Structure formats: C-alpha cells, structure tokens
Amino acid sequence: MMRFSKFGTKFTSKSGILQLMDDLGRAVTTDRKMIMLGGGNPGHIPAVQTLLREQMAAILNNDRQFEQLVGSYGAPQGDRAFLESLAALLRREYGWPLRAENIALTTGSQTTFFYLFNMLAGEFADGSRKKILLPLAPEYIGYLDVGLTDDFFTASKPEFEFLPDRLFKYHVDFNAVSVTGDIGAICVSRPTNPTGNVLTNAEMEQLDALARRHNVPLIVDNAYGLPFPNIIFADARPTWNDNTILCMSLSKLGLPGTRTGLVIASEEIAAAISGLNAVISLAPSSIGAALARQLVQSGEVIRLGCEIIQPYYRRKAETAVSLLQRELAGTDFFIHKPEGAFFLWLWFRGLPLTSQQLYERLKQRGVVVVPGEYFFPGLQEEWSHKYECLRMNYAGDEADLAEGIKIIGEEVKRAYDS
Description:
Structural class: alpha/beta
C-alpha cells in the first residue's frame, strides 16, 4: 500500500466534500436513476444558456479570440480585460474605489478558499498558529477540509428565530463570538450555503466593525449574491472596503464547468492570489472570463440576475417549500427561511437517527441529499442539532424534485415511527 505524506493523507481521506462530489460523479454514470438533490449544480436556465451560447459562438467566429483563448497562457491574475470590466461595473454600481489590481481570478471558489485560508491561518514563521473564525455555524461544507494544519477553524452556534409555517432563521449570536489573538480572519457566506440564510445588513456592519477592531480581514463568500448572480430574496446591501475580501464566482451564473472564482480585495491580497496561481497552476482558466466579459462590460449580467436568474430560483424555492410542508406534515420538522442560494436546510427536531443514517436510507431509494453534520467546521462541542439536519438542492427538474421530496417525507416519517 502506497504511503502518502501528511498532505497526501489529509487530502485523500474521507471528507464531506469528497462524498458530495463522488455522489455527483456516480449519479451521471450509473444506469440507475438517481434524483440529485445533493450537489451544488445550478439550474440549466434556457435564457441564460442562450446568452452563453451566443458568447461562445462569437468567440468561435473570431479567429484571433479563439486562438488566444485556447492557444495561449493567460496572466496569473486572470484576463485583464475582464478584470477591468468588473472593476468598472463595481465602481459604477456601488461606488467602490476599485481598479483591476484589486481583483484576481482563481480556478473556482474551492481554490479561492484553499488559498485564502492557508495564507491567513495555520502555522506562521514565528511559530504562532492562527485560525479562521466562522461566526455562524452551519457553514459551507467545502471549508471543512482545506486547512493544511489541524484545529484550523473555530465557530459559534447561532441564535434561532422561529417563524410561521414551520420556518426558522439563524442569526449571529454576537455574545458567543470571540475574536481572540489566535484568529487570522473572520469568514461568512452570504447567502449561506447550506441554509439559504442571508445575514442582515446590521449583522454585516457589526462583523465588519469587529474585524476592523481586531485588525483581521473579513472574508465574505458571495458566490450566490450581488451584483451577480443575484440569487438572493432578502433585503441585502453588498459591502466592500479595504479590509474586506469579497469572493465571487461564475459558477452560479451558469458556468460551473469553467471553474472561475473572483477575489476582490486589497491590492496586496490580489497580488498574493496571483502569485499562488503562478506557482500552483501557472494561470487560471481563461474560458469563464471570456464567456462573461461582454456581459460584465455591458452590465447585462445585472439584468440577467434581476430579471431571469433570481425569479427562476425564487419560484423554485416557493414550490419546494410548499411540497415539503405537505409531505412532512405530522413530523417535527422546520425549514430554514429560504432567503438566497438554491438550497433548503431541513431540521428534524429529535430525529431518532443521525443525518448520515438518513442520507444512507435516502440514497438506497435513489435520492441524494447531503447530511447536515458535515456543515459545522470548527464547532467542537457536541450538539444534537448537527445530526438532525439535511441540505437539499431545489435547482433541478421539478418532477424529480417532487418525487424526491415525497421519498424524503416517507423516510423521515419512517424514522420517527421507528
């Protein structure tokens, strides 16, 4: 048996994100029908795909553009024309004092967070060690295993707000959030994956003030947010300043296959990301930036979010909530209020088995979700709530969604009855 280094052992061992991506891969290669309510694939929105096909056709019909796109290395920072267009868009929309030098591209958000977390936390040259603070758990499953050192995260449990119709909402419990001397950065996702939670404007202001007071950066995972793809259904004001590292993506715009992440930060952070790109991958892929460049330059990308993408997911969220309320009636369930992204977070209070066991039962019946226990990186204390939740994606085919939710309802009722 091959012996791997500590690095190799860590990144080949069982993890939540590996299980998630393995399920996605197997589902598209198996002969058995699987209802995929587990992954992070965006919906295939016809109007969006039409626009992207038009952009691709324009590139294919321009010999120079095509040859440059596929036949030349890009710059480690990313496509310059795209960076300038994005900086101009953010200046125009929000008045942020940005230049192209404030932005760097990566090969997707997962790479972005591997870079950022390990730059700002872990072991330092003076022997000190720092952590990433997640002020509200649950948080994104993909953060859990990216740290190069152990004991990499610390997190706080949320406050609960109970709402009508079996809905609830998490809030940051600022009384529990402590920025100690071993914190290298604070990180939140907004909208939050897995819950669809959107931190309020007041919460974001308080987190910004907290980060500034302790002289640590505030990382905001904005993969689903404003100005694009705008999968956000709540009142949310985007914020950026020289202490904010705003992370965006082209995946949820409809381009997950191009693996394009965007980092908007101080020039120092953007230059560091560029340096890491050069060492690790030479340069990020140019395809995503090429396909989105004209949409960003013209501002069409904002109209796309407001008029097509956001209404599409809002309708789907409403349908999914209605189906769940019907199929889970009679059980002690709650749904996190869907305020953004394209996931629903289901909480089965007092569930007599773990979310992992429920996940296995559902997979046996051809429904793939994600067990909730993977979404609590840095929360060391035992908490039954961690094992009572599931994340499901509602972005896909509506007939599959209805069938999958019916099976979820049957299995949850079976679990409680047993």
